[in-house]
Specification:
By secondary structure, this protein is mainly α. The protein contains 19 helices and 18 strands. The strands form 8 sheets. A 3-stranded antiparallel β-sheet has the order 1-6-7. Strand 4 and strand 5 form a beta hairpin. The N and C termini lie far apart (72 Å).
């Protein structure tokens, strides 16, 4: 029976976003979505893409009829009061992002141009509304009356500010109007100046309180805003954002108890066979507490120190990661100047060496403008004098495996047999249909990518070396390569069973045999060059920076001189 006959903007926008993403996936995954699955090798009928398009369009027209006042979104419609007169920042950001995604998806598919045009208009109009209501220092209230813009609720919460950034950047990407970008940066700077707590590596959820409340929504909206801001920042200025994002995730989500369990995709190795926390981050494997990775509904983090009575009075389980393995992740506090390096100018200045960028097509099919940036001339790997193996492990192994056995990315068993030039081309230009980034050409606009041609050459030479081939072939036979990193035991058992051709069924003893031959995953130390702290943007590095950077990383003793010649 019907229990709630209201219409909520959040729900309707969620339907649009999901349906348009499905329709786009049908277009971009022709081997999965086919005419006659499974007979023709596909998995799902591609005709369902048309169903998704129709659903998204119907819901969008419902939003137009029920959730707009003077072109501005409102949060609720009821049969009694009809269209409401207010919108929360949470709902507005969701609706703006979904509308932009719809417009971009229909452009990609060359479908429904009239609806795409109306969706873009809604994105721009609601962006203008945000410009009108934004506070002088960049803050947003929880909600606003529509269309007047009269503020409702608190103005000192972090979540509405993250939502404002997300919506403003959607408006900027749609229109390329610099006013939206400047406003988003103003709020971003506010959050990083006033809300960031360096000692704990978290953002306060409310100014003036010494507790940070973490919920799945607050994690999601902060992550979305930070991600989009990276795309809206010149690439040579994005390093402080990447460093803070990584630290925020680790300390706000991974170490706080917000992440209750995880899978092999976020660090576990043996899928719970041994300690239940193979990577030693205090988060157990999913099978120890359920069947899938799990987030807590709410976690409260103490940012006020041992004497914080407000935190002590809160009822709930105290997170204790030491009940699994010892958490070894530690961060050195940054100086005030280093903390402020993340702040962005409201308008970009004309720096020497900037190169104009072409718009970029992202994996989801959306098109975004890129800011003029400085290209990388001498790569970080070259400055630190990394070998081909080190650069492969830093950039490629996360997907392809330590010796090309394949994890999320393809196995390299066939690629290592290609010519050097053929493999160079794959690394340089990427494989868009398989989500492999173009490491050399980047966006394809002549700007370049993360790796220089010399660095790609070194990586290819290593991958095609006799050492790499031997190790790759050994792994494919189910052998443990001495000194290699631990792998999921099923990786070995599957290959062992395949080699036995049904004559042997592996059991617990076989699994334990592999465990004994591996290093304890929780005791593996990440090499310093894997997460090198910058002394300046990568695009500004030269070989003259080799010695100070290597000394900072501890790769050379303080008194030993370093040659400047590139290898």
């Amino acid at each position: 029976s019907l229990k709630d006959n209201s219409s909520q903007l959040w729900d309707q926008a969620s339907w649009i976003w999901g349906a348009t993403s499905y329709a786009t996936s049908v277009h971009r995954r022709p081997t999965v979505f086919t005419d006659n699955p499974p007979v023709d090798g596909g998995m799902v009928e591609k005709s369902l893409g048309r169903v998704a398009q129709a659903l998204a369009n119907a819901v969008f027209q419902n939003i137009e009829a029920m959730h707009l006042r003077d072109g501005i979104f409102v949060s609720e419609w009821t049969p009694e009061k009809r269209t409401g007169a207010s919108v929360t920042m949470r709902d507005l950001a969701m609706a703006v992002a979904a509308s932009r995604d719809m417009a971009e998806s229909w452009n990609l598919l060359d479908k429904h141009p009239a609806i795409a045009k109306r969706a873009r208009k809604l994105v721009e109009d609601n962006g203008r509304f945000l410009l009108k209501v934004q506070g002088a220092d960049g803050f947003f209230h929880e909600a606003y009356s529509v269309p007047s813009g009269k503020p409702i609720g608190a103005s000192n919460l972090s979540a509405p500010n993250w939502a404002g950034i997300r919506a403003l950047l959607a408006a900027y990407f749609t229109t390329e109007d610099e006013a939206f970008l400047g406003a988003a940066r103003k709020t971003f700077n506010l959050l990083n100046e006033k809300y960031w707590v360096e000692a704990q590596g978290v953002y306060r959820s409310r100014l003036g309180e010494d507790t940070a409340v973490v919920t799945p929504y607050e994690v999601g909206i902060a992550m979305a805003a930070m991600r989009e801001m990276m795309f809206a920042t010149p690439t040579h200025r994005v390093d402080p954002q990447i460093e803070r994002f990584t630290r925020w995730w680790t300390q706000t989500v991974n170490q706080s108890g917000a992440m209750q369990s995880e899978s092999e995709r976020t660090g576990e190795i043996y899928t719970g066979f041994i300690t239940g926390d193979d990577d030693g981050d205090g988060v157990p494997y999913a099978s120890k507490v359920g069947i899938a990775p799990l987030m807590a509904g709410q976690v409260v983090i103490n940012v006020g120190g041992p004497g914080n009575k407000a935190f002590a009075d809160i009822k709930g389980e105290l997170h204790n990661p030491s009940r699994f393995n010892t958490v070894r992740m530690r961060y050195q506090p940054r100086s005030k100047d280093e903390q402020l390096a993340i702040l962005l100018p409201l308008k970009d200045t004309q720096e020497k060496g900037l190169v104009k960028r072409q718009p970029m097509e992202r994996a989801d099919g959306t098109i975004i403008p890129l800011r003029p940036s400085k290209p990388i001339r001498v790569g970080l790997g070259t400055v630190v004098n990394l070998s081909g193996r080190q650069m492969f492990e830093a950039n490629c192994a996360a997907c392809h495996g330590q010796f090309g056995e394949g994890i999320d990315g393809l196995s390299l068993a066939e690629d290592i047999e290609r010519t050097h030039d053929a493999m160079f081309k794959i690394v340089n230009t990427g494989r868009f249909d398989k989500f492999m980034p173009p490491w050399g050409v980047g966006n394809g606009d002549g700007f370049g990518g993360t790796l220089t041609k010399a660095e790609i050459d070194k990586i290819v030479e290593y991958v095609q070396s006799d050492e790499f081939r031997r190790n790759n072939h050994a792994l494919e036979r189910g052998e443990v390569v001495p000194g290699s990193r631990p792998r999921d035991v099923w990786f070995y058992l599957s290959r062992e069973n395949a080699a036995a051709k049904g004559k042997k069924i592996s059991g617990a003893e076989d699994a334990r045999r592999y465990f004994k031959r591996h290093v304890d995953p929780a005791k593996i130390e990440m090499p310093v060059w894997m997460n090198a702290p910058r002394i300046k943007p990568d695009a500004e590095l030269t070989l003259e920076d080799r010695e100070p950077l290597m000394r900072r990383l501890g790769l050379i003793p303080p008194t030993v001189p370093v040659a400047q010649k590139a290898d």
